[in-house]
Amino acid sequence: MVRKCFEVPEIGVAERIEIPAKRAAVVVVDMQNDFVNPRGKLFVPTAPETVPRIRRLVDRARAAGALVVYTKDTHYPGDPEFSTWGEHAVRGTWGWEIVDELRPREGDIVIEKTRYDAFYGTPLDDLLRVYRRDHLVVVGTVANICVLHTVAGAALRWYRVYVPMDGVSALNEFDMYVAARQITFLYRGTLVKSVDGVVFT
Ligand code: ZN
Prior knowledge:
The protein is of the alpha/beta class. Helix content is 28%, strand content 20%. Helix 5 (143-155) packs parallel to helix 6. The chain is globular and about 45 Å long. The structure holds zinc ion.
């Protein structure tokens, strides 16, 4: 057991950022019933409160002409990842579906991903290039797992990444800090205090 008290380094958070809508995509990570609904298999207790905020963000993004992308954690029976997390997000089940309040609209892109990183083995990078989107606003769950790995996948491909803190959920505060530190320090992403601080121009 490793247990130690660390001082948390200063992590900068922007109040307001402006992004050119036509170069922007909002990436909504894994807001599926298994993670967001209390009856889900891997429920994240702080995920439901992010739903109305993410809804506001994607509604504004669409209206401004930004692209909206949803990722869906997707597993088939017997996936080796179940040895870590138990069975979840099995393709075609209720738990795999995106929560009703955030149901994708016509024109949105839905990416089925088998691992934490939404770029891994998916057409996401290609689609973002086709639609010329190099500024990504990433929200969803879980902060230090699929959100962080997707931010990493984006940053390593030189996308500009923004993460509104109140649009992301984690299992505990420590995990949220870990994600915030990695997003800013390692991947040079910008944390924004709230989804409402993201302005599409
Ligand atoms: Zn999974």
